[in-house]
Amino acid sequence: MTTSDPAPAPARSAATSASPVASPVSAGDLRWLVVGAGGMLAHDLLDLLRARSADVVAAGRADLDVTDPDAVAAAVRDVDVVVNCAAWTAVDDAETHEAEAFTVNATGAGLLARAAAAAGARLVQVSTDYVFDGRATAPYPEDAALAPVSAYGRTKAAGEWAVRAEAADHLIVRTAWLYGEHGGCFPKTMARLAAERDELSVVDDQVGQPTWTRDLADLIVRLVEAQAPAGTYHGTSSGRTSWFGFTRAIVASAGTDVRLEPTTSAAFVRPAPRPAFSVLGHDALRAVGVAPIGEWDERWRVAAPTVLAGEVA
Ligand SMILES: NC(=O)c1ccc[n+]([C@@H]2O[C@H](COP(=O)([O-])OP(=O)(O)OC[C@H]3O[C@@H](n4cnc5c(N)ncnc54)[C@H](OP(=O)(O)O)[C@@H]3O)[C@@H](O)[C@H]2O)c1
């Protein structure tokens, strides 16, 4: 087993050490269902799949509520790949609405996984660095113990386990610090604040890997095309920075003249605790011959003109 699932079950394209990856397929030859199609990541994934002439069904929340078992079973038919981009992503609100967040992030993921398994489709489940406690000092490997410190993290961790239990043929792709053209995100917020204010205080004691949704979408497609073995992969940029460091890069790209002051998480308390160290390792990708995304600062320089010009949600 080249990836990290603790209880490997036979899967359509599961690897052995002698044969890590099955023959590649082309995205354009597959039938895709993208769930949560109104979201930031889904938008870029749909653009990419359509550009590849893939046969793709986009199911927004109004078309498919992932918490509705009958609707999920009906939607997941005659497709090869289901990508679950639907999620309760309001991290702070989840602290006071954990049951509702669980219904979407865990129950919904499990329903999709069960339906995908019944239909013989591969399920891609998007997960998060928040499944970890953030107390590590070296990049988290894919098989590190899950220890979420927030309600959102608990619901996403439960979603991972539901997917593992229901669908042997799954790809769990954990990402973090996402930004994109089509949605509200940290760079847009900071660019706006930098234009409005003379000085900004930004947290400097949380580190992570800013990741462009377009890069993550591309990675998901590459994993599927490579017929990567079922398991857990990390879909983040490489390198690391703090929110303060990321803001410096954002302000430089925006060309704004603002004074930046580092601050601490203790001085900027939010309802949900954030992991202090959200750096994920990419060994599982390398093991199956799929290239990781690349360094966060280089990718930001490529992304910045598109993202900062994007719609503000
Ligand atoms: N954003 C980040 O920094 C980040 C970091 C790590 C991991 N992730 C993960 O990455 C994935 C994509 O994130 P994102 O930022 O693209 O999220 P997003 O923009 O918030 O999109 C999530 C989508 O899910 C939909 N949704 C919510 N409940 C649903 C339901 N019951 N049935 C169907 N759809 C439902 C939402 O619809 P409504 O808008 O109508 O509610 C929204 O369109 C998620 O799994 C998230 O947990 C994100």
Report what the structure shows.
This protein is of the alpha/beta class. It is 37% helix and 16% strand. It has a domain at 27-181 and 211-238 and 280-293: NAD(P)-binding Rossmann-like Domain (Rossmann fold, 3-Layer(aba) Sandwich). It has helices at residues 40-51, 69-75, 91-94, 98-119, 151-166, 186-196, 213-225, 243-254, 283-287, 296-308, and strands at 31-35, 55-59, 81-84, 122-128, 170-175, 178-179, 199-203, 207-208, 211-212, 231-234, 241-242, 259-263, 277-278. A 6-stranded parallel beta sheet has the order 2-1-3-4-5-10, sandwiched between helices. Strand 4, helix 5 (151-166) and strand 5 form a beta-alpha-beta unit. Helix 8 packs across helix 10. It is globular. The model is unreliable at 1-19 (pLDDT under 50). Bound molecules: NADP nicotinamide-adenine-dinucleotide phosphate (NAP). Residues 36, 38-41, 61, 64-67, 85-89, 104, 108, 126, 128, 156, 175-178, 183 line the site of NADP nicotinamide-adenine-dinucleotide phosphate.
List the helices and strands and how they pair.
Layout (H helix, E strand, L loop, with lengths): L30 E5 L4 H12 L3 E5 L9 H7 L5 E4 L6 H4 L3 H22 L2 E7 L22 H16 L3 E6 L2 E2 L6 H11 L2 E5 L3 E2 L2 E2 H13 L5 E4 L6 E2 H12 L4 E5 L13 E2 L4 H5 L8 H13 L5
Helix pairs in contact: 1-7, 2-4, 4-5, 6-8, 8-10
Bound molecules: NADP nicotinamide-adenine-dinucleotide phosphate.
NADP nicotinamide-adenine-dinucleotide phosphate (NAP) binds next to helix 1, helix 4 and strand 4.
Number of helices: 10
- Tell me how many strands there are: 13
- Derived from helix and strand composition plus strand pairing, the structural class reads alpha/beta
CATH topology of the domain at 27-181 and 211-238 and 280-293: Rossmann fold
Ligands bound to this protein structure: NADP nicotinamide-adenine-dinucleotide phosphate
